[in-house]
Amino acid sequence: MEMHTFTVNGNEYSAAKMNAFSAAKHLVKLKTLLDKGLTQGTEANAIALLSGIDERTLETVIMPIMRDAMASSITVGVKLDSEQNVDKAFNVDTLFDFFEVIWEVLKLNFSPFFTRILSLFGLTPEGLVAKAKALAKEKAEKAIADQNVKAS
């Protein structure tokens, strides 16, 4: 497996590109989580896309991905493969860093797949992000307008 290192908030981490079968197995789990939101098609927003994720997701989806990717905190010197080791590497003040590390591991292993899927629909990852931001802005503006109407 090909190892990669990356930095999050000044701390160094490493992760491996998974073998094809492991990545495919995890991809199916990720797809299942996102299915509920994706059924809304182009009208899906970030909340809808995350609607399939619950408190068990960390244990049943994310941690197995971290284990198979051999994610580690180089700075602290622990593998990010268990609750205890995650607690050694992060605390409540650095919790966002943990999610950034997860994001980096997901990008490393799945972004080529999702980029190719998007290209089938004439989209790019940047275009999808821009569309999601525009939808979020539109929803926020509508919520503010609705609130102002109620306040009047």
Summarize the structure.
It is built from six helices and four strands; from the N terminus they run ββαααββααα.
Describe the largest sheet.
4 strands, antiparallel
Strand order of the biggest β-sheet: 1-2-3-4
Could you give the distance between the termini? 61 Å
Low-confidence stretches: 42-46
How many helices?
6
Number of strands: 4
Which sequence of SSEs, written as H and E, runs from N to C? EEHHHEEHHH
Strand content range: 5-15%
**Cα radius of gyration in angstroms:** 18 Å
Give the overall shape, derived from the CA principal axes: globular
Q: How much is the average pLDDT? A: 83
Amount of helix: 55-70%
Structural class: alpha+beta
Description:
This protein is an alpha+beta fold and 152 residues long. The protein has six helices and four strands; from the N terminus they run ββαααββααα. A four-stranded antiparallel β-sheet has the order 1-2-3-4. About 3% of the residues have low confidence.
Give the arrangement of secondary structure elements:
Layout: E1 3-8, E2 11-16, H1 20-38, H2 46-49, H3 57-68, E3 72-73, E4 78-79, H4 83-89, H5 95-120, H6 125-151
Antiparallel strand pairs: 1-2, 2-3, 3-4
Helix pairs in contact: 1-3
